[in-house]
Design a protein that fits this description.
Layout (H helix, E strand, L loop, with lengths): L5 H7 L14 E7 L2 E8 L2 E6 L9 E5 L1 H7 L11 H8 L4 E3 L1 H22 L20 E9 L2 E10 L3 E6 L10 H4 L2 H4 L2 E6 L22 H14 L6 E5 L1 H12 L6 E5 L20 H10 L8 H12 L5 H17 L9 E6 L7 H11 L2 E5 L6 H4 L1 H16 L11
Parallel strand pairs: 1-4, 8-9, 8-10, 10-11, 11-12, 12-13
Antiparallel strand pairs: 1-2, 2-3, 4-5, 6-7, 7-9
Helix pairs in contact: 1-4, 4-9, 8-11, 9-10
């Protein structure tokens, strides 16, 4: 086992480790890492650490990592699902958390930091790719405006961003996020020289409006409404044979649209595309006793590849910290509950289909993406070392995979249905 020495624990868990997190009610936890038992107590974001457990000790919850899991967690690079404490919960099962799960959910961002700090003392720092070159000072080429469009009898006020000219490339953001995830595509001069890149915020998201009675409603996105919104936006913007590119829930609905109305698209690129995952709908993303913004950054943080650049990684998480209450859970209702009811009936895509899969994605795993590509007759594009948000967490790494596909789409080449390993 990658050992944790006594001085490692003391040095790693500095009292100021949790600085920046909001004050909270005092809580305590027992971390069981292999045969080590580490007690932590937190009051007003100040951390106190003890070793072992006295007969009188008590804890709000415990968090267990086996010796084998710890070895994988400390590996360079680690395997999928071994990137954060939250990733361990999402992929290894809820059994590792015992005691008050409500307190654990409130403490999840702190648990992530604590476990990361212990790993950082045990092994060398994980290498990260360099941040993208910063843009030049001055105005961005991105233009934003509002679009008023009727969807299923309701008038929606939707915020749209665009840049470039050429073949329309319509981009769909992930659950609980908004079109800022596509800023790097929108500001990529090589891309916008050939494509008119368009990204919009779904209703309830980003700068698009929710309904006027949002405070008395519980948002739950359905496949029908999602598809109708995308088609209404494409029609209102008069996009001529656009390429449709969506990520996560956007990749899932892109698969649906490739199958049900493929004739409308020049091609479809489903990033992290799968046909649903029941495990992504969790109560902790919409509860009055849990800060949803803090929990969400922890819940999705493990999906980011360990080698992704620091700046884009943190900006991706900031977008999740700004999500409206209940919006992420309403989006995962579509992905986890509603879409799977339609998935089995989906036939072959009516246009060239490319399904992109990041190695570190455990929400839409490569196995799930492969199954979707096989069912719909698409081409699987495996992205080693990439995560769940490729266009925002690692834009330059993602471009290495996207550009060859877009070149083929421009050339009118068909997608290949022989699958990558």
């Amino acid at each position: 086992m990658t050992l944790l020495r006594d001085d490692d624990v003391a040095r790693a868990l500095d009292p100021t480790l949790l600085r920046g997190l909001p004050p909270c009610h005092p809580w305590s936890a027992l971390l069981e890492i292999g045969d080590r038992r580490i007690g932590v107590r937190v009051r007003d974001a100040a951390l106190a650490v003890t070793e072992g457990d006295d007969v009188n000790a008590s804890w709000d919850f415990s968090f267990a990592v086996t010796a084998e899991e710890w070895e994988q967690f400390c590996a360079l690079p680690p395997p999928r699902g071994m990137t954060s404490a939250q990733a361990l919960v999402a992929t290894g099962g809820a059994h590792r958390v015992r005691g008050s799960r409500e307190v654990w959910a409130r403490a999840a961002p702190a648990v992530d930091r604590i476990v990361d700090a212990l790993r950082a003392r045990a092994v060398a720092p994980r290498p990260r790719r360099a941040d993208p070159r910063p843009p030049r000072p001055g105005p961005s080429p991105i233009e934003g405006r509002y679009l008023h469009v009727e969807v299923e009898g309701d008038l929606q006020r939707i915020h749209v961003e665009s840049a470039g000219s050429g073949v329309p490339l319509l981009c769909l953001h992930t659950a609980g996020a908004d079109s800022r995830q596509f800023r790097y595509l929108l500001e990529d001069p090589d891309l916008t020289a050939h494509f008119r890149v368009v990204a919009f915020d779904m209703p309830w998201h980003g700068r698009s409006d929710p309904p006027a009675d949002w405070r008395s409603r519980r948002y739950a996105l359905t496949t029908r409404t999602y598809a109708a919104t995308i088609l209404a936006v494409a029609d209102a913007l008069e996009l001529d044979e656009p390429v449709l590119l969506g990520c996560s829930m956007g990749g899932a609905i892109a698969l649906y649209l490739a199958s049900t109305c493929g004739e409308r698209w020049r091609a479809v690129c489903a990033l992290e595309g799968g046909l649903g995952n029941p495990g992504r709908f969790v109560e902790w993303t919409n509860r009055a006793d849990v800060d949803h913004s803090g929990f969400l950054t922890s819940w999705v943080g493990g999906l980011i590849a360990p080698g992704s650049p620091t700046g884009p990684r943190e900006q991706t998480l900031w977008g999740y910290a700004q999500s409206g209450p209940g919006v992420y859970q309403g989006d995962t209702y579509f992905y986890s509950r509603d879409l799977p009811e339609h998935a089995a009936d989906l036939g072959p895509a009516g246009c060239p289909l490319y399904v992109f899969s990041g190695e570190y994605d455990y929400s839409a795993t490569t196995e799930m993406s492969r199954a979707a590509a096989e069912q719909l007759g698409g081409e699987l594009v495996v992205m080693p070392g990439r995560g769940h948000f490729p266009m925002s967490e690692d834009p330059e790494g993602f471009a290495d995979h996207l550009r060859p596909v877009l070149d083929r789409i421009l050339a009118g080449e068909p997608a290949r249905t022989s699958f990558s390993a």
